[in-house]
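A.,

Following up on our hallway conversation. Structure tokens first:
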């Protein structure tokens, strides 16, 4: 139903619809009393892979929603405005394993609020406003293994807050205000299985081991970073299992006092982060010595209080240390002596410095380095000292200021597998550039202003698997540009300026599976059959956001993708609408294994009927943002394997085309921002596998036409209708701006207005039927009516006379009495000798008139009715012919003779004459006109009186004029 329809037309019409609606109500009520069913369509959440997602909604919730199904395994309520957790909020979630309440405004959690979450493993309370953790706060969470309370500014902890968390292994209570370790002690003393503890930024000034415990802890990871620690004192071996330790980024102006009396107390630490830590040099040496036998990874960022080369030399004397990170140390030059002692280092990170120069021999002693990162520096070229690292397998030179690459830059890097050169500026490559990189597998050259490949990939890089050339300035791909890359599987060429794909441009890429060409300047003439005919193993092709636009839907010869039989994903969409385009009917020919097709925003007005007959395996189809106001089921019939359909913003007025498409495997439909008003039951029943339906942004008819859909949304436990409780009404006017789910379906069943409407309509229809019947069928109905009355009336009269007293009863009007007295009586009684009965002469005085009439008619062999216009107007004459008709109908004898004194049109005759004519089809007598002879009239009347009353006696009648 659409706007503009009469406003009061808001109820179901038709008996069948009323019956159907009643059945729906009955079934729903039965379900309500037998098995409580909870639907998947929630007011503020959606279900995805067994998890309720209640985050990033248009309207943030202020309390835990009550309609989340109890069968979910996860609930995400992050980024809302919840201020309090009540005891009843999570009462019925027996299998819930993850709960995310981060980024709310929670200030209070009732005791026992989590008591029923017996299966919960992970709880996230990050970034709320909890400042006090009360007694038994986490009661019932005996299976919880991960708890995050980061960013709550917690100041106080009750002694029994963490008492129930006996299985907890991970705790993050960073960014709070604990200040003292004795508060931490109240936490961890109840956590026998705790392994990871994050305490960063808690304003802790003194770390004394005796404040935590007198016995050892099972911690394997401890984060104390961003605390202004003045004294770090360990007097007992409380961390025998500690392997990961972060004490860096302490905001101290004065050096921290380091007091670890026994060097073995940290002897198992393998990863140490002392970034920005301010210690005296002697204390720093003591710290590094305490991890001398176990350290493998050392992070020293922002070490502004030290001579960095000294720290490097000290740390490199640790024989087990293999990974050294030196980020953000404002290094501009790597001097030759920096890494002389780092013979055991295999990974070196020098990123995010200001390095412009690396001195000769700087890496001569570090032959063991395999991974080197020099990204985000200011190198103008590839440093020559890198060739000294013969074992290098991964080199990152991205985000520097390299303007030119030389043939000798990578001459000695024969073991290199990963090379990152992106975000530099070298417009051209050289054919000799990568000739020695025989083992290279990944090459990243994106965003480097490359305009010419210069045959760099024609004869080198035989083992390259991934090549990133996106975000450059390439304008064309020439014949054989990638001829040497026989192992290449992924090629990224998107966001260039490519206008042309020359013949043979992808020759040699027989193993290529992914080709990204989106966001270039390719036109329809650029996409030819020969462009892709060498890519027989291609599985993904992205041609989106180019300038490809077909002006006709006629077939292409040959089709561009006819050789890509293994292609599984094809993207053809654009981001901005242009002028109208069409789809060639055979553009998908050859794509027999295509699974995903993206054709968004092509400005298509329609699809050719057989366009999908070439893609029988298609599972996902995206045709959003086209102008497909009407779709035919024939278009979708060939793709019976379809599981996901995206048809948002296509001006669709109905989804009924899916009813006949027979898409029994369709699970997911996104039809946002269309013009859908009514969702029919037949549509939903035709999609038995549907589990997700997104109709956001449509305006619905909020009346009885959508009652079935409304009730189904609330009760379906198979299909989730996303954002259903925010569906808005556009009709009728009284519901404008309201929500579809707020419409009361009860009004469609027993609303008095609806009853009045039906009653009024029925009355009007009945009046019209009666009027029509009276005008066209009144004589036939009158016949039936009087025939029925005759059966009742004559039952008591047909035996009341054993013999006839008279030959004929004369029925006439007083106006015609002179003719009866002067003409009829002399002829019939005096001349012919018939016995006649006349009411003024033979009726019994004092007897009721109707009885006299009845006795006279049943006491006579015949009844002669003298018909004139005055006769037709007389009430008593009408009664007389009525009684005679009763006798006629009951006895089925010819006892009625009609004599017409005037010519009377048929429409003026009484119903009894018309019924007589319908029943017997007899001839009638008419009094001759003036000047005509009357002898024949009297003879015919004599013969009519003389004949017996049997129907076969009609044959003896002479022809007389039939009445019309």
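Then the amino acids I'd put at each of the 964 positions:
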């Amino acid at each position: 139903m659409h706007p503009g329809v009469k406003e009061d037309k808001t109820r179901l019409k038709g008996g069948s619809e009323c019956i159907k609606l009643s059945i729906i109500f009955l079934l729903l009520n039965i379900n309500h009393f037998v098995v409580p069913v909870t639907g998947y369509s929630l007011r503020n959440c959606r279900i995805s892979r067994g998890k309720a997602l209640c985050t990033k909604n248009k309207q943030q919730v202020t309390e835990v929603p009550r309609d989340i199904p109890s069968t979910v395994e996860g609930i995400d309520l992050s980024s809302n405005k919840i201020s309090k957790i009540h005891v009843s909020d999570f009462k019925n979630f027996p299998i819930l394993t993850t709960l995310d309440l981060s980024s709310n405004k929670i200030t209070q959690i009732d005791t026992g609020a989590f008591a029923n979450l017996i299966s919960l493993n992970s709880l996230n309370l990050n970034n709320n406003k909890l400042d006090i953790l009360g007694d038994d706060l986490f009661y019932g969470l005996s299976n919880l293994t991960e708890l995050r309370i980061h960013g709550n500014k917690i100041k106080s902890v009750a002694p029994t807050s963490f008492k129930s968390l006996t299985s907890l292994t991970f705790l993050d209570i960073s960014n709070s205000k604990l200040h003292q370790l004795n508060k931490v002690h109240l936490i961890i003393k109840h956590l026998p299985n705790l392994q990871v503890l994050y305490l960063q930024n808690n304003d802790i000034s003194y770390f004394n081991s005796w404040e935590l415990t007198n016995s050892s802890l099972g911690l394997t990871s401890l984060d104390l970073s961003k605390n202004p620690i003045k004294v770090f004192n360990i007097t007992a071996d409380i961390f025998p299992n500690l392997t990961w330790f972060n004490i860096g980024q302490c905001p101290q102006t004065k050096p921290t006092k380091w007091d670890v009396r026994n060097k073995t107390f940290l002897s198992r630490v393998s990863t140490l982060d002392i970034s920005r830590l301010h210690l005296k040099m002697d204390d720093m040496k003591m710290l590094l010595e305490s991890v001398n036998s176990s350290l493998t990874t050392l992070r020293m960022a922002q070490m502004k209080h030290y001579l960095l080369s000294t720290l490097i030399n000290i740390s490199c004397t640790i024989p087990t240390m293999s990974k050294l990170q030196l980020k953000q140390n404002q290094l501009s030059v790597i001097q030759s002596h920096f890494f002389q002692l780092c013979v055991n280092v295999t990974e070196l990170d020098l990123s995010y410095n200001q390095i412009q120069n690396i001195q000769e021999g700087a890496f001569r002693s570090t032959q063991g380095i395999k991974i080197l990162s020099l990204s985000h520096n200011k190198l103008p070229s590839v440093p020559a000292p890198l060739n000294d690292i013969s074992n290098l397998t991964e080199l990152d030179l991205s985000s520097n200021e390299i303007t030119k690459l030389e043939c000798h830059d990578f001459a000695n890097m024969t073991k290199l597998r990963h090379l990152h050169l992106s975000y530099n500026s070298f417009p051209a490559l050289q054919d000799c550039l990568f000739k020695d990189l025989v083992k290279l597998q990944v090459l990243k050259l994106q965003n480097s202003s490359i305009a010419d490949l210069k045959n760099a990939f024609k004869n080198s890089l035989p083992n390259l698997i991934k090549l990133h050339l996106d975000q450059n300035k390439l304008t064309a791909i020439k014949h054989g540009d990638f001829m040497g890359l026989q192992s290449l599987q992924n090629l990224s060429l998107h966001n260039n300026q490519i206008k042309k794909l020359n013949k043979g441009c992808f020759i040699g890429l027989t193993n290529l599976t992914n080709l990204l060409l989106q966001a270039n300047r390719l036109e329809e003439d650029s996409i030819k059959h020969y462009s892709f005919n060498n890519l027989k193993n291609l599985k993904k092709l992205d041609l989106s956001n180019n300038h490809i636009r077909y002006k006709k839907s006629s077939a292409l010869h040959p089709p561009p993708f006819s050789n890509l039989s293994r292609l599984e994903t094809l993207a053809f969409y654009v981001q901005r609408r242009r002028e109208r385009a069409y789809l060639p009917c055979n553009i998908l020919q050859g794509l027999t294994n295509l699974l995903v097709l993206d054709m968004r925003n092509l400005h298509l007005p329609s699809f050719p009927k057989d366009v999908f007959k070439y893609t029988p395996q298609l599972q996902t189809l995206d045709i959003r943002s086209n102008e497909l106001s009407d779709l035919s089921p024939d278009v979708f019939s060939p793709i019976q394997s379809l599981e996901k359909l995206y048809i948002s913003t296509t001006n669709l007025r109905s989804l009924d085309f899916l009813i006949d498409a027979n898409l029994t495997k369709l699970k997911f439909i996104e039809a946002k921002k269309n013009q859908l008003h009514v969702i029919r039951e037949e549509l939903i029943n035709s999609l038995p596998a549907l589990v997700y339906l997104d109709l956001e942004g449509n305006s619905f008819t909020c009346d009885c036409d959508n009652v079935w859909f409304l009730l189904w949304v609330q009760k379906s436990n198979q299909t989730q209708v996303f954002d259903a409780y925010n569906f808005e009404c556009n009709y009728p006017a009284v519901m404008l701006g309201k929500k579809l789910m707020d419409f009361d379906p009860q009004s469609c069943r027993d609303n008095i207005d609806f009853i009045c409407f039906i009653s009024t309509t029925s009355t009007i229809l009945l009046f019209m039927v009666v009027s029509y019947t009276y005008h066209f069928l009144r004589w036939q109905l009158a016949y039936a009516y009087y025939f029925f009355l005759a059966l009742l009336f004559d039952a008591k009269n047909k035996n009341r006379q054993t013999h006839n007293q008279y030959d004929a009863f004369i029925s006439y009007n007083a106006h015609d009495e002179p003719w009866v007295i002067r003409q009829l009586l002399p002829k019939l009684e005096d001349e012919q000798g018939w016995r006649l009965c006349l009411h003024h002469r033979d009726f019994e005085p004092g007897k009721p008139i109707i009885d006299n009439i009845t006795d006279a008619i049943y006491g006579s062999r015949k009844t002669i009715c003298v018909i004139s216009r005055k006769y037709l107007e007389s009430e008593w004459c009408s009664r007389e012919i009525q009684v005679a008709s009763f006798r006629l109908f009951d006895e089925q004898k010819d006892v009625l003779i009609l004599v017409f004194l005037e010519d009377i049109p048929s429409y003026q005759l009484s119903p009894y004459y018309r019924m007589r004519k319908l029943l017997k089809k007899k001839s009638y007598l008419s009094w001759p006109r003036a000047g005509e002879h009357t002898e024949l009239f009297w003879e015919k009347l004599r013969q009519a009186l003389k004949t017996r009353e049997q129907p076969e006696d009609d044959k003896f009648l002479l022809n007389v004029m039939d009445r019309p």
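The radius of gyration is 51 Å. Curious whether your intuition agrees with the design.

B.
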